[in-house]
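Dock [4Cu:2S] cluster; give full complex structure.
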Amino acid sequence: MRWSRLASLVVVMLALVLAGALAGQAQRSTTLPQDVQSLIEAKGLTPDQVRAAIQTYVPPGKYDEYLMFSSGGQGGQVLVFGVPSMRLLRVIGVFAPEPWQGYGVGSEETETILNWRTKDPRLAWGDTHHPALSETNGEYDGKWLFINDKAGSRIAVIDLRDFATKQIVQNPNAVSNHGAVVSPNTEYVLEVTQYAGPFPFRYVPLTQENYNRHFRGLATFWKFDRGKGRIDVSKSFQIELPPYWQDLADFGKLESYGWAFWNSFNSERAIGGTLEKKPPVEVGASARDMDYLHIVNWKRAEELVAQGKYTVINGMKVIRLKDAVEAGILYLAPEPKSPHGLDVAPRGDYIVVGGKLDPNATVYSFRKIQEAIRSKAFSGRDDYGIPILKFDAVVAAQVKLGLGPLHTMFDDKGNAYTSLFLDSAVAKWTLGPPYNPPERAWKLVQKLPVQYNIGHLTAVEGDTTKPGGKYLVALNKWSVDQYRNVGPLLPQNFQLVDISGEEMKLLSNTPVGIGEPHLAQIVRMDRVKSWEVYPAGTNPLTMRPDPNAVKAGQQRIVREGRTVRVYMTAMRSHYVPDRVRVKRGDTVIFHITNIERTKDAIHGFAIDRHNVNLSLEPGKTETVVLRAERPGVYPFYCTEFCSALHLEMMGYLEIEP
Ligand code: CUK
Ligand code: CUA
């Protein structure tokens, strides 16, 4: 008895001790040390981490210094981040419907943009790779953003007054593209094909002979009309290229203004055939040690077009390959094994190429290229008759960086930064004269490990004539062990790096769970001046007054035969009219204007059981065309929580049998 009583006493005491310990633990997890030093110790932070945290912290009410526009990859959009906080500020719907913005779900304006010239019934996605900010004198001017869709061979124009897509053009002569890049004064947006296709596009049986004869690459110079803010297809032109797989391009600037450059891979012209026991494309396309840098005089191409020396194919002016060679518009230069990135240095004097399967950054000198062209320093011609400049005659340096160099950006201190895909690192290295004296030229300075598989990197205004230095973002594919497991599909990993000092320092990690971003560009916040509200009655497609916009008191319903037009207004917290009755088979056209002028008065317009949702920011007018097919009484309602009586902001659409 005594023993058992003692035992139970021990049990009770143990339980008390345990409960006390648990309570202590609970206390530890909810109460943080109040002074900074103890907090740092409790979290086990290193001085570098503390510095990074302070450097990237943007307190409530304060703004970021820079905006980063990133491609959203297979998600088909553009992502907008603040830098250095790396907070996601906006997603811009571009090639895929984006319901929050009312993009491609019912509004005539946005559905017109999404389907522009698209022969496919409906391309509901896109693969965005390369955002390109508009430039003036080789600097970002904060007015427009362009981005490509690799899968749909399309280019989109985004207006930065409202951060919304305004135009999508589809290439009628190409099936695939890689990149949008902008000339120093936004004269052109250049789209170069990725995978060659039959030219002009049609069916041709895929044999090696047909491939060599009928397949082509294509460079499209889309003329941008700044006044209209749109690509002018009638003033655009194309240059026919050999069926190599042209890759990312860059425009020359300052001393190389008027020229453009892009690399290529698969100059072997491999076409696969794995089931027939032929080598896969990856093997065939990596057989040779060299591929071809393309060197193009676009100013002269422009003159040729002005002289009428082009062929019109599917509505596009095309300079044929033979004519381009004859006119001295197109040259090749060897470049090491399966290159990928190509970037022109800030002064336009050097062209840096990363060789995926070569450990070097190969640097070409624009001056040497010009001399080689003048003195005809050719090592021969390719199968299509294009002169090949002698490698040694045009190369300024090869800088050994590590495994898998891809893309390069620049700072304001004469350094270049190259992503190393296989090494999972960023290499910092010095440019040659005039950026650095000869003794400091072409030297690897530092390699910073990143997590993992870095594709592009981007530095503050790092591809302009005046790079900003300060920050760099490594755009890594996959994050592996960097975040809590959220299933087998890994988030991408953006890493912010301080490049203001001698040594690169990692500042922060940002997971991106939306798509695989490729390139991003970082612009100074003060260069982008967007609208806070739309001018009253603005049509977002034309960015002009909408003829169907109404003011308070002008709302009405007009029937013309089987068409019913509803001139509606939205304001807190009601629609006028809020009851619309139509008959089955009618066409109902809603013209809806948000007549508010304060910037926190955004409304939506959704119709239950219909594919309709608009985002109506103050001043915007949009149109919905609806075929009344299924009799019923459907609520329509506001999808933005706009006011205390937001839930009451609704109406009924009656469709009579
Ligand atoms: S590409 Cu993706 S990492 Cu399309 Cu610019 Cu190089
Ligand atoms: Cu308007 Cu909610």
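Observed: The mean pLDDT is 94.
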